[in-house]
Amino acid sequence: MTVPAPRVRRRPSMSGRVLPLLLALALVAPLGLLFALVDGTTTDDHDLASRERLGVRYLRALGPVTDALVEAQSTAVAGAPVSRASLNAAIEQVAAVDTAVGDELRSHERWAGLRAKLEGLPDRGLADPEAAYQAYGEANDLLLALYRKVRESSGLIRDPRSDTFFLQDGIGGDLPTATVLAGRLADLVRLAAARPAAERAKTGIELAELRSSAFGPANDLVADLRAAVDSSESTDLGANVLTPLDAYQRSLEAFTAAGGGRAAPNPTQLTAAGLAAQSAAKQLRTVILDQLDTLLEERVDALDRDRLLARIAAGVTVALLVGLAVTLLRRPAAGPHREPADAALPPAVRPDPTAAGRSADRQPVAVGRGVEAERWRPFDAAR
User: Fold this and answer.
1) What is the pLDDT of residues 217-245, one digit of tens each?
2) 3-class DSSP state for residue 141?
3) I need a surface site. Which of 114, 174, 218, 320 has the fewest CB within 10 A?
4) Which run of H or E residues covers position 165?
5) What are phi and psi of 127, to 5 degrees?
6) Number of independent structural domains in the chain
7) Predicted structure pTM score
8) Is 87 within 8 Å of 199 (Cβ atoms)?
């Protein structure tokens, strides 16, 4: 019987182990590139939203300065003593915020110029109301320039989402401009009554231009806030903003009626309407800043979650790749491995140890019979 040769079982060679590893790396490389792109975009969005929140913090501090400055201007133009308590307190608040976040927002220089101008304003009404109007007007111009700087350097002016963009445009652009120009209009109406008759024509033109400048940002504010509510996915935004917005819009209509259509409106009525509009603007400003900061905070939290999940997925991928590499590299080198001869034989021809004993017991009988047959073979042939 022919016994089959033992089979040789070969183990994978070094190239056979490295090839799967290379294939795994080829698959992971595009995933790594995709992760890098997503992580970079998420990080940029996160940094922008975080910087925008710093801008909101700065705008919140500028609000009291705006109110105090407008009130001080009206008092100075009227010739009354100016109380600087509220203005000084507001200045200190902005100074603290500028110290904390001014490096990132690059606002130190503009704030230093505005602060010097504010601290140089007279404590008492000037003998010349026109000079007071001019001095406070310059301070207000510097204040509005600081608003623009904060919006630009914080990235608020480039916000990619509609609701937050319209909110920042309203709170950082329209509302402070409308507040400053409304106060300036009321003060100019007061000054116009005391100007000589020869300047009435010039004063009328100046009032008409200032009306257009003052009412334009106020109407833009209303449009911005309604656009923000319409475009937002937040259900809280509309509920929180629309009520104070309606109150501000009513006060704006009263102010427009008191100051529009006449060359020299009644100063008393216009001042009263202006104070009502300013009070409504304060409430609206607080609500807008709160809602804007909430939306930005939610965005930052969502970006944090996305970045964490992406990094966890990348970590799991790297761990699996390392495990695969270790498994492949720890296997022994390639070489022939011969199996035992018995293992190579089919079951039918493999020796059975138990059968060997039984054959040994019957062996004498089988041998004796064979010798006896061989002895009598010639006689059997002769027959």
Assistant:
1) 989 999 999 999 999 888 888 889 989 99
2) helix
3) 320
4) helix 162-169
5) -65, -30
6) 1
7) 0.74
8) no
- The one-character DSSP state at 170 is I
Q: Where are the beta strands (DSSP E) in 293-380?
A: 336-338
- Is residue 236 helix, strand or coil? helix
Please, are residues 90 and 146 in contact by the beta-carbon 8 Å criterion?
A: no
Domain presence at residue 172: yes
> What are 69-128's pLDDT values in tens digits?
999 998 888 888 888 899 999 999 999 999 999 999 999 999 999 999 999 887 665 568
CA distance 90 to 263: 35
Burial class of 176 by CB neighbour count within 10 A (0 to 12, 13 to 18, 19+):
buried
Structure-token match 């000037």, residue found: 126
d(CA 138, CA 118): 10
What secondary structure, in 3-state letters, does 273-310 show?
HHHHHHHHHHHHHHHHHHHHHHHHHHHHHHHHHHHHHH
Question: Does a structural domain hold residue 338?
Answer: no
Closest CA to 35 of 300, 302, 301, 308: 308
The verdict on residue 106 lying in a domain is yes
AA letter at 252: L
| Relative orientation angle of helices 200-231 and 162-169, to the nearest 10 degrees | 160
- Is residue 207 within 8 Å of 189, Cβ to Cβ? yes
Residues shown for the chain? 383
- Say if 371 falls within a structural domain: no
pLDDT greater than 50 at residue 140: yes
* Domain span holding position 30: 25-313
Q: Are strands 336-338 and 8-10 parallel, antiparallel or unpaired?
A: antiparallel
